[in-house]
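Q: Predict the assembly, please.
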Amino acid sequence: MPDLVYRGGAFHADTAVEVDAGAGRILRVGPVADLASPGAAVERLEARALLPGFVNAHSHAFQRLLRGRTQWRPASVPHADFWSWREAMYAAALALSPEDVYHVSRFCFLEMLRAGYTAVGEFHYLHRDPDGRRYDDPLELAQRVVAAAAEVGIRVALLNVCYAAGGIGKPLLPEQRRFATPELDGFLDDSAVLLEAYAKESLLTIGLAPHSVRAVPRDWLKELHAWAGRRELVLHMHVAEQAAEVEECRAAYSKPPVELLAEEGVLDTRFTAVHATHISLEEAARLGGAGAGVCACPTTERDLGDGILPAEELVGAGAALAIGSDSQAVIDPFEEMRLLEYHERLRRLRRVVLTEPRNGRLEVAPALMHAGTAGGARALGIDAGRIEPGALADLVAIDLAHPSLAGWSADTLAAMLALSAPAAVVTDVWVGGRRRIEQGRHAAEAEAAAAFRRVAAQLALP
Amino acid sequence: MPDLVYRGGAFHADTAVEVDAGAGRILRVGPVADLASPGAAVERLEARALLPGFVNAHSHAFQRLLRGRTQWRPASVPHADFWSWREAMYAAALALSPEDVYHVSRFCFLEMLRAGYTAVGEFHYLHRDPDGRRYDDPLELAQRVVAAAAEVGIRVALLNVCYAAGGIGKPLLPEQRRFATPELDGFLDDSAVLLEAYAKESLLTIGLAPHSVRAVPRDWLKELHAWAGRRELVLHMHVAEQAAEVEECRAAYSKPPVELLAEEGVLDTRFTAVHATHISLEEAARLGGAGAGVCACPTTERDLGDGILPAEELVGAGAALAIGSDSQAVIDPFEEMRLLEYHERLRRLRRVVLTEPRNGRLEVAPALMHAGTAGGARALGIDAGRIEPGALADLVAIDLAHPSLAGWSADTLAAMLALSAPAAVVTDVWVGGRRRIEQGRHAAEAEAAAAFRRVAAQLALP
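A: Predicted assembly structure:
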């Protein structure tokens, strides 16, 4: 029993959480006196508050290798941008063996657990070998990612990426050859095999991910959406991350990306638009009206110079926000959450933008915490992100004695966490009821870090 | 001897640092074989890199009490901003006893040390008692701040604030009564007493701080500048944090703040403009041309909805950037540094904006590290922020085995730290050669936190 439990948008004292270890779900939540069977052991989590685990709804795990390696430009180049960064990213993608993919993903997932993420949506587009050939087992690399997640114990939604073009109506670039899914039927067949193979995994779900309007032909979208819909799978897509994508889309289809997706019937509550930095207000209304999700990745969007998504309009229109660590420049759900609000403050030059009503006023913290937990769970189609009976037992304990939280009260703690605290406040993390981080440490940390370092040391980038 | 030492904008191996403990300064830097006297003890800092201590050039320590307490608005208020935040800040300022000021400042300074700040410029404007009367000892509260810094061992530049008006040509507001310095002569007399009283303190310097063009009459500026200049003191001033200040200044003086300061002859290399979020490009050029410093406080500027300063133009024009934790919403020099760059990326939608030439290319990390260390030291007028013989021995050790740094090399470590790492990488901190943080802990932490909590618990805010 922790000192405080975050539930229904606020912290509550005298609340214990009982977990069904077999099912990996929360069994009961309530006053300890009501819950504990006589003589049952109650774990006293001293000076701890318990939160739902954070959900990282958009990740490219292998990009963890790029950290610190793209923060420069040649003196001859007047400025760097997303597109020059992408060259380094492609070089990394081309360099990795299946074993490398495993080791990099494993360490990256471990770093996520340590920061308080209990689930990750892995937007997986590494399919082929470095020469662009299919592996003998076409799911070779997907399996490596899944194995990496299982090894460290993070819940994963493998978002199988469809990637067919190097731009609208353009062939793939040579450096995109590992991503290639040139035929829709083949892609769906592979996806069916994935679904079948992992149907019984308790920590794994599958989703579909048409990469973007740049990389997927318009006439595939309906079928991808229908295929996913029949199986109740989530559908994720990069949308309007860069102005150039919007321009290309307008030039080819005479409409911006979200309008195109609406026309193809893709927008619904199982759809998540990733980024949405360059959408119009009409498109924000369209996403909201469809009840779609929007996954912001603000630590990446600031790093890549993507820009700021119109979060206030999206939420106002009814879209559900989620967060993602994307390029792994930073892995910290607290920072990711607060940037949703802080980037809006910088854009609008006012405070307290994203709010939910609480205690007779409008509070920022519940809105941000919702995006970091339940919003992400919704995007990945998992019943997590809330401490309620029946939900998955994905939980995070934080250290109430951490200096960044000094002065907390039950009323201010959520705001301190959402706006001010570092991920270093996280002490313990449970996924499906099983503790994977204990006192800030993961049992596999030394080995996983050593293997990651070996891959990083071998990687040469331009 | 650590694994790596940050010196001259890059990390170097096989480098030891010898400290003169009596003088609190660095004595020698070089290969360990050259330095160690035969038989001398060499402290081996295993898996550590050594950096110059970070300098927090703009702080209001008592505002640490506001953390988590202003992240909401009444449902009836359409939006919150800097000015509504200021009401809560004034309420906190009015509530504190001298003992409270000591306890809050002490804990806040301790939190800074733990994050890697070795020096702080405390922009001190709490002068009078809660009724607006002078204390029997007019320096009562200044002494509490100084004692708090001395107790935890952080180096402090006490920036004595001059605050005479509630707006240009307007009387002070009732809630500004504790800040009042109604007469210039009286303010300078108090400053002279401060200088005299603390002349021999090794960890303390004094500077002058006309609060802003809002709060200080134009015809005081020349004399304040001359008085500071004769004593070689630094002069700090809030400049153009909010658009309303610029409008008020234009209305009263027909020119914006920096133009006014230029006309009054205040701009020089000892001057630091704090914020500068709403300056024009001409004013940026003016600050740069004078060789002035500019202290950005981006974690506060995003929290208060102030906006983004034109960092690229300022640096291009010759201004020296520094960082400050200001309102203490976040205390993390790494986050503060990276936001200088990241806010520019969000504003310009491109990458790699603030750079220094290194290794035949333009790198972001040295520019950010410079702002976080040497730039701040320059703003405070102290010889720190660099690991060189003769400089103050203010040093920070970071944990090279921290997960956020996995995959580092000597070439990428600075970029990982400046753009990606949390303050949790800091393990040990020395000020004037004396270790104040050891393995992430300060000896006074429990006691200081308990006293802080007592003050926080008593504070009622609107």
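The two ends of chain B are 51 Å apart (CA to CA). Chain B has two domains: 2-52+387-445, 54-380.
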